[in-house]
Amino acid sequence: MQYNEFAGVYTLLLTPFNEDLSIDYKTYEEYVSWQASFRPQHLFAVCGSSEMTRLSREERIKCASLAVKNSDGVPVFATGNLETEHDAEVEEIKALEQQGVAGLVFVTKGLCDRPQEQFEYLSSLAQCTGLPVILYEFPGLRPHLMDASVYGKLVETGRFHGIKDTTCLLDKIEEKIAVQGESNVLQANIPFLFDSWKAGARGVVATPTTCGADLFVKMWSEWVSGDESAAEKTYWQIINLDNAIDSGFNMSAKYLCRLRGIGFNPINREGATISPARMRSLKAYYDWAHYNGIL
């Protein structure tokens, strides 16, 4: 199978915070460089894992800018439609363009129960930029799951090159695959990751990429080379990573990044905490994975 430039691994970026909950930009730059060193097809700044709804517009734009600066040429995508007013959305889109992002991500914006309104909103917003757009079924703004028929219509406009599917249901994933055309259904659900690729999905945008991007790059390389058996074995390792960080994400991912040498504080703006027992569990997982050459 041939894949276009918008397929592959989209590595999500966490946001490190200082004790006073200001962004630790020094660690952020170090983290972006580390993520880029694994050579994913794309970096995804300003995402759900970044706690994007708890960042100000100025912080979102600065994070996108620093991601571009430290990406070592890996294309950076960033969410551009979190504001509530159209003019403010357009201003943010233009600001992100000026930072040099390679593409924009539009969330489905809680409009999935109003398909015609959603289609008109997204297709109109896409006319405000010349950059490629990827859609995101962001669970933070519900209802968030886009009907496949709406996705198909948006793809036909030629402005939308993929969607981060968060349905977590294989039949719903397959419905989008049936209408993806030249676009890319990108899987967020780890249990169905391998199955979705076999069904025709063309990449991944998932939470464990925040701390284990190297495994996803490895699996994708094996998959596109035609070595399905090797890709499946790497998928087994990814399942273990997903299970390790699933409880208490994104704090667990931040702590695993710390174990891997990036100076994250186990802090987020949602007020979550990570218990000593959880940290011990993650340390045991990391020691096992590191000993066996997995991470």
Examine the coordinates and then state which fold CATH places here, giving the name of the CATH topology: TIM Barrel
For the largest beta-sheet, the strand count, sense and barrel status come to: 8 strands, parallel
Q: How many strands? A: 8
CATH homologous superfamily heading: Aldolase class I
* N→C terminal distance: 29 Å
Task: State the CATH architecture.
Answer: Alpha-Beta Barrel
Total domain modules: 1
State the shape. Answer: globular
* Helix-strand sequence: EHEHEHEHEHEHEHEHHHH
User: Average pLDDT value?
Assistant: 97
Helix content percent band: 40-55%
Strand content: 5-15%
**Broad CATH class:** Alpha Beta
Radius of gyration: 18 Å
How would you write the strand order of the largest sheet? 7-6-5-4-3-2-1-8
Low-confidence stretches: none
Count the DSSP helices: 11
Helix/sheet category: alpha/beta
How would you characterize the overall build of this protein?
- This protein has about 300 residues and is an alpha/beta fold.
- It has one domain: Aldolase class I (TIM Barrel, Alpha-Beta Barrel), CATH 3.20.20.70.
- Helix content is about 45%, strand content about 10%.
- The protein contains eleven helices and eight strands.
- An eight-stranded parallel sheet has the order 7-6-5-4-3-2-1-8.
- Helix 1 packs across helix 2.
- The longest helix is centred in the C-terminal third of the chain and has 19 residues.
- The radius of gyration is 18 Å and the shape is globular.
- About 45% of the residues are buried.
- The model has no long low-confidence stretch (mean pLDDT about 95).
